[in-house]
Amino acid sequence: MASTTLFRLATRSIRPASFVRASSYAPRCSQPVRSSFAIANNFSTSAKLRSGHEEETYEEFSARYEKEFDAVQDVFELQRNLNNAFAYDLVPSVEVLSAALRAARRVNDFPTAVRVFEGIRAKVENEGQYKQYLEALEGLRNELGVPLREELYPKNE
């Protein structure tokens, strides 16, 4: 069991004694009150907690996000899906990014389209991978008229 889970269990049932006495209208129980540690020991620590999410492959991830970007109807959905896609410990595929750029065009959100490329730059490991993504998305970028941040704000060196 994770240490944070134990901490939550331990702190959840600790209450000041005055809080218990404040409720004078509560009926008296004939059963003894069990401590929080005794309650916590009733739980098995060997069972793995499952959140309901199974492992998905990169292809399943890409297909899921392509479908989500194709269904985007407003800016909030677009930005939420982009945040979720970039939150994973991987760089989204070119197909997912092209679906995101098309969705940005569909909802007429120019700043988010530019920020897609900023997100790519932040997620890749090196400049060479960033250039590969730029080459793969060059046609769509020119078609939609999405400049890069480097083109909009060149560094003064």
Automatic annotation (TrEMBL):
<keyword id="KW-0349">Heme</keyword>
<keyword id="KW-0496">Mitochondrion</keyword>
<dbReference type="GO" id="GO:0046872">
    <property type="term" value="F:metal ion binding"/>
</dbReference>
<keyword id="KW-0999">Mitochondrion inner membrane</keyword>
<dbReference type="GO" id="GO:0005743">
    <property type="term" value="C:mitochondrial inner membrane"/>
</dbReference>
<keyword id="KW-0472">Membrane</keyword>
<keyword id="KW-0809">Transit peptide</keyword>
<comment type="similarity">
    <text>Belongs to the cytochrome c oxidase subunit 5A family.</text>
</comment>
<comment type="pathway">
    <text>Energy metabolism; oxidative phosphorylation.</text>
</comment>
<keyword id="KW-0408">Iron</keyword>
<dbReference type="InterPro" id="IPR036545">
    <property type="entry name" value="Cyt_c_oxidase_su5A/6_sf"/>
</dbReference>
<keyword id="KW-0479">Metal-binding</keyword>
<comment type="function">
    <text>Component of the cytochrome c oxidase, the last enzyme in the mitochondrial electron transport chain which drives oxidative phosphorylation. The respiratory chain contains 3 multisubunit complexes succinate dehydrogenase (complex II, CII), ubiquinol-cytochrome c oxidoreductase (cytochrome b-c1 complex, complex III, CIII) and cytochrome c oxidase (complex IV, CIV), that cooperate to transfer electrons derived from NADH and succinate to molecular oxygen, creating an electrochemical gradient over the inner membrane that drives transmembrane transport and the ATP synthase.</text>
</comment>
<dbReference type="InterPro" id="IPR003204">
    <property type="entry name" value="Cyt_c_oxidase_su5A/6"/>
</dbReference>
<dbReference type="GO" id="GO:0045277">
    <property type="term" value="C:respiratory chain complex IV"/>
</dbReference>
<comment type="subunit">
    <text>Component of the cytochrome c oxidase (complex IV, CIV), a multisubunit enzyme composed of a catalytic core of 3 subunits and several supernumerary subunits.</text>
</comment>
<protein>
    <recommendedName>
        <fullName>Cytochrome c oxidase subunit 6, mitochondrial</fullName>
    </recommendedName>
</protein>
<dbReference type="GO" id="GO:0004129">
    <property type="term" value="F:cytochrome-c oxidase activity"/>
</dbReference>
<dbReference type="Pfam" id="PF02284">
    <property type="entry name" value="COX5A"/>
</dbReference>
<dbReference type="GO" id="GO:0006123">
    <property type="term" value="P:mitochondrial electron transport, cytochrome c to oxygen"/>
</dbReference>
